[in-house]
Every structure is written in C-alpha cells, then in structure tokens.
# Entry
Amino acid sequence: MTLKDTFTPGPWRAHIAADSIRVSDGVCSADGLHVCDVASYGALPSTIHANARLIASAPELAEALGMALESLNETNVPKEWDCRPKIRAALAKAGLL
# Structure
C-alpha cells in the first residue's frame, strides 16, 4: 500500500529546550527543515517533551501503520481482533489515505 506522502520526509528529530520561563520544543527533519514548534503554557515540561517526541515519530508511525494495514489485508483476521478500521481512521486523519 502506498500512502500519500505529502508531508516533510522523515526521519524527524525532537529538539528539547527548556528555560526557567517557558518550555518550547521543536521538531526538525533530517535535513534540518523546521517542521513545527511544540509549546504549551501551563503544561509540565515533561508533557511538552513527550508531545515533541510523539510528533517527531509521526513519519515512522505512519509507515508502520501502512505496512501493518497491508499485512492485515492479506490475512484472515478474526473480527474481534481486526484493528484495520482504527488504522484506516488514523491514516485518514493524517490525510494519508
């Protein structure tokens, strides 16, 4: 399955920075392109850092979900274990289907 890969190519890196006034992390691509800032005033620094790491893992997560969906489509999955609807929903939410 080929996903629409219109996003900045991965891998992405989280840049964790903190000072005594605010916490503002960033996410950059492998070639140094700025992808986004991650800041939340009032949130714990650990939460902001975790958000940045989660965002930075997005390209790899999308690729893994696409591979999982392709594998699951080729197997006979019992209905109670079928996670394909959730995978499709996540990929669609990201605009990748």
Observations:
- The first strand starts at residue 12 and ends at 15.
- Residues 8 and 29 are 7 Å apart (CA to CA).
